[in-house]
Every structure is written in structure tokens, then in C-alpha cells.
Amino acid sequence: MLGIKEIQEILPHRHPFLLVDCIEEVVPGVKATGYKCVTYNEPFFQGHFPQMPVMPGVLIIEALAQVGAVAILSVEENKDKIAFFGGINSAKFKKQVVPGDKLKLECELIKVKGPVGVGKATATVDGKIAAVAELTFMIG
Questions:
Q1: To which H or E segment does residue 65 belong?
Q2: Both ends of the chain: CA-CA distance in Å?
Q3: What value does the mean pLDDT take over residues 44-66?
Q4: Which of 39, 11, 7 is nearest to 24 (CA)?
Q5: What's the whole-number mean pLDDT along residues 58-65?
Q6: Predicted TM-score of the model (pTM)
Q7: Contact by Cβ (8 Å): 136, 85
């Protein structure tokens, strides 16, 4: 289990853009599973939407990418590097994510060649799929 301090040693993101609260499992270069505990105090809820707070889909995708980045940046040769977005494919949103949800974030690396890779990412709430996507990253 990685807490916020250990995550910050791997990822360059900081509040309010660090969207992962903990990492439950990491297999370097293979996969990672983490969580985002969604609260009403998130800055994005001030405008999305005040009358019906819903976590923006792009931020769910970003949270998934951060978990995937933990997996790839945990490889010894990638330490102290940054994983950049290279692409987002087949993104689908199936369930709204709202305050009080515990968002489970899973990313499995399905292809890595040099500094470029692809991850299969799934976000769930209570076992129900909230979002899925195929994420391409580049290590820089």
C-alpha cells in the first residue's frame, strides 16, 4: 500500500491535480490499482455542477492515467521521469461519479515499446464500471 507521500515520490502531480489518494497494489511495469475518495470539497464541484455535483469524465481519465503512471514509473529505469499522455482511445463513461464515491482505479499495461506504452484502464464504484479507456503514454 502506497500512501500520498509515496505517491508523490513517484508522480510529479500536486494538489489540486493529484487525483489518487492511495495505491493498493503495484506491479512495476505491469499494473497498478489505486483509489480516489471523492468528496464534495473537490474544487471542480464548484462549477461541475453546483446543483448536481458530478466528477468530470476527463478527471476520471486523468486519475486512471496517474495510476498507470505509477505502474510504469515504478520501473527502476523510469524513476524520476514523467509519463505524458500520448493518446486516449475507446473512452466510455458508464456511471456518474459523485461525492461520497470511492473510485477504484485500475490500469494494466498491455503494450510497452521503448518510451511508449499503452494501458487498459478501468474505473469502478462499488463494482460497477464508471469509465473505461485505452491510454497511451510517453516517458520523458
A1: helix 57-73
A2: 26
A3: 96
A4: 7
A5: 98
A6: 0.97
A7: yes
Place of cell 510497452: 112
**Neighbouring residues of 121: CB distance < 8 A, sequence distance ≥ 6:** 61, 64, 65, 67, 68, 105, 106, 107, 108, 131, 132, 133, 134, 135
Instruction: Tell me the mean pLDDT in the region 46-70.
Output: 96
- Please, are residues 71 and 107 in contact by the beta-carbon 8 Å criterion? yes
C-alpha cell at 51: 446543483
pLDDT in tens, 72-97: 999 999 999 999 999 999 999 999 99
Alpha carbons 37 and 18: distance in angstroms, whole number: 12
Distance CA 61, CA 133 (A): 8
Catalytic (active-site) positions: 48
Can you give the length of the chain in residues?
140
Of the pLDDT bands very low, low, confident and very high (cuts 50, 70, 90), residue 50 is confident
